[in-house]
Batch of 4 targets.
Target 1
Amino acid sequence: MKRTIIVGDIHGCYDELMALHDKLNLHPEDRVVCVGDLIVKGERNREVVELFMRDERFSSVLGNHDRAILRHWQGLEAASKPAQEACLKELDAGRHRYAAYLAALPLKIDLGSHLVVHAGLRPGVSLDEQSVEDLTELRTLGPDRTSREGVPWYEVYNGEKIVIFGHWPADEPRRGPRSLGLDTGCVYGQRLTAYVLETGEFTSVPARRAYSE
């Protein structure tokens, strides 16, 4: 059976991604979709991006960390954090290729009954009118979309499509009435988690270590 496998935030954790690949026994006909944040904070960012560029089974939406690196290359944003600076140094030799790839990543991937975004959707706002900032940074519905304090968007969202997202790490997948969060904090020493759309099954592998605080 052809599978659609949604993977949580990778953040340059290539070894864990390969362990998940092996545990899932990935087939040639399978499709792998990441919820974004392919890079930054982990140690093997180049290998992650190269895999997604090389293997047509792999695709991703744009995450906020991916976007920050892209905006730096475009001259729109300074690299303000050590993890960003380390990632930029690692990717420097191939930055033109990697910038072109990141620039082509969509903000959302429509899987029919499900929709993949990095952070979230603003309840009550049509899909076409969602802002880039909400799609890549939204957590709660207060004045600061990035805040962890307040009403989580996914507890309110009740749209037509089930939204699968990342961005906000938790010990277990986050769940709302019509949403599922897959960031289980691999880069922080927890787990990398995948969800098989056709069967509703979860698969995860432990992080080798904590790469970031």
Target 2
Amino acid sequence: MSNKRFRVAIIGTGMIGQTAHIPSYLARPQDVELVAAADIIEERAQKAAQHFGIPAAYGDWQKMLDEVQPDIVSVCTPNVYHMGPTIGALKAGAHVLCEKPISTSAANAKEMFDVAESVGRELFVTQTARFSQSSMAAKEFADAGELGEMYYAETAPIRRRGIPKWGVFHIKEHNGGGPVYDIGVHSVDLLMWIMGNPKVEAVSGQTYLKFGNQDEGLATSLADSGAPEGVLTPRPYDHREFDVEDFASAYIRLENKATLVLRTAWAANTPDEAGKTYILGTKGGLQLGPLEYISNMGSYQANTGLKLPRERDVSFSGHFWAVEHAIKVLRGEEEKIVKREEVINVMQLLDGIYLSAELGREVLADELAV
């Protein structure tokens, strides 16, 4: 496969585009060249282009695709607007890195992958929780049978007060959902991947809005809510616009009789370290963050920590690994890690959480089929 430099364009120059995607490409000048950026707010695209030295800025992503004809496009728009630019870029001949969640339904995800396959282009979804040393090690242990039968997993990505206040995360019309789509999807995707992507059998979920639509007068920072590097072009925040969940919980039954439990929040009266992510198996267990293997050693119970290679000392290091991986996949050097069937399965799970909360009952797999 050719080692040519790929020409890259960005659609959506908000926080994740500015602090994750663009720096990840800039870190690989031998592999890629950033040629253009587009945003529905053209001034924001212009500011980002000027700040990062990108040659061209557009207020119309379709015009950008037509004129620039990039090899790779990163779609960094709010969730509701992932599908249109992704399909547009694929049909324009580009490979796509789409931010998570891929869209706001499993049906949309299927259509997006169908288009990618029909035009012979790769669609990568930035489920970047997989791209860490601890996650890769956990997957290696599970695949090697070190855990035995994995029958239960639990995860609790929770912020005490960490509502994103720089964009439209808090507005359902634009984002589709709250912490389930923002941080919950990462943890659920990671566990489902480690456990072998078992199909969803049933979901019981509940969502809550208790704090997000209030002005509590608390001193918080953008770093508290997931923007450690700040935001170049923040949008004014108004709590009265908040209409997504700020807390959600779910109990998921999987086809192999395993169970997954999720709790996720942007705002809750809970200790800062509210919960760990762990997997229980018949031979051993895993705790993630930090990674620890839990089992027996002879007549004694033992917890084993691992010395892992040092991670990149940057914010959003998972995006750096994900971009590197995508380039290697396109060059035929690696097999794709985040696969179509895994993404659709996770999206069906998320669909189940919201549908169950809406209906007030457990939903079954046939109600989530696409």
Target 3
Amino acid sequence: MRDARVWSLPVQPETDFTLSSPILEARNVNLLFDSGRSTLTVLRDVSFALQPSEIASVVGPSGSGKTSLLMVLSGLERATSGSVLVDNAEIGTLSEDRLAIVRRTHFGILFQNFHLIPSMTALENVAFTLEIAHPSWSYSDIRRAAMDALAEVGLSARASHLPSALSGGEQQRVGLARAIVGDPRILLADEPTGNLDQTTGATVIELMFSLARRRGTAIVLITHDLGLAARADRTLSMNHGCLREVHTDHRVSV
């Protein structure tokens, strides 16, 4: 079982992210929607590179294109033009089946609204992800990995509980366990504290950052919280579909 003691991790040494190739990259990406009468431009010539183990935050007003950026980066939405590369491989021309494989092997996604299946226990919600990603795995292997993930987020004792019996913070921790159970190289987090109070949200973020540092997982974090955004390795700002760099010299402390 993985060591679940994530709260006493030391601060990681400064990392020079320029020494490695990006794990995720957008090159001159545009996303347009044509209604027949007019064209809505959601992303405008966006270029972005995420290095392995790097945490990047993206801030901006509602409707600026932040969630659409995550959709394009993960291949859930295809760019109108430009390129998205995962591990230096262009994903824009892949079939839906191949894209699904890339998402299963490279991405974990953490949502604002938890998106847990209400009829499944915490353990079953986490295990379901592995059942889809690894259909050849045995039930015992899937259950063991799911329990390990719940242990990492401090919810071993709540494994048999339905989402309705969990607090908002606990539900989001189940969501985090589900996102990291497959050991993704990239975690996409879309306003993960948006439905939580400040204290609970801070606990979830602390845990997410600690797990990411320990596992070497890169993160793209969408947030309205400027204080939270400032704790990432980089902060970028999105406005009217345009992405620009804000900071490059700060670190997450865990």
Target 4
Amino acid sequence: MSFPAPKLTAEIGVFGGSGFYSLLDKAEEFWVETPYGLPSDKVTVGNIAGRSVAFLARHGSGHTLPPHMINYRANAWAMKALGVKNIIGPCASGSLQADVMPGDFVVCDQFVDRTTCRKDTFYDGPVTTHVGMAEPYCPVLRKILIDTAREINLTVHETGTVVVIQGPRFSTKAESRWFTSLGWEVINMTQYPEAYLARELGMSYAMIALITDYDVGLEGDPNIQPVTHEEVVKVFLANNDKLKKLIYAMVPKIPKKASKMCADVLKGARF
């Protein structure tokens, strides 16, 4: 089965999360057909500092797709079809630790998958493929994110583990207490399988978590209330300009190619 080639190409991809539905001012929008159906929305392709960038709102521009209904395979495939080599994945996220505060940015280096029944691989056979994910986020992109965030004076945490829950419900206090006790810093609903699918296709991917809330509040602090969707969007919108400034500042520094670790992912992965 063949699909028409996309109208344009792009070097760099950006997935927009809750409250982040646009990035590029002068750009062209179009649908990208994939073997897995349509992506979450039209892809917007434009230019930042002489680099071609593709933007896709993972929940759709009207936030019509809850986390468990996103077509993650179509989204990743669309980026690959456009020629994207490096992807930035901003996400509205909750904090599990007191020192990771709302308004902070976290460049996660690990994830823990707690989702269920999501279509999370392009390799269903007949060739058995096992892709390694010891380091799930591209170290090259992560360093660029961290260095750029510091240059523009953002509060950034250089490492962090994000636990990805199924959604659309938020955590119970017991679940959140458990995640916190394990030392994980960030909680989110969309990082898996997005980050992994990008790796399967040989693209580099880095997550930047914008902390919007303390998950269910902090133990023993009655002044911090459990998260609500309204509060998540409110904090994210208040920090959107910071996030866009970070992306615009880092784009010129992104390599033309995916890092070797990501691009060569299938070497030794197949029987």
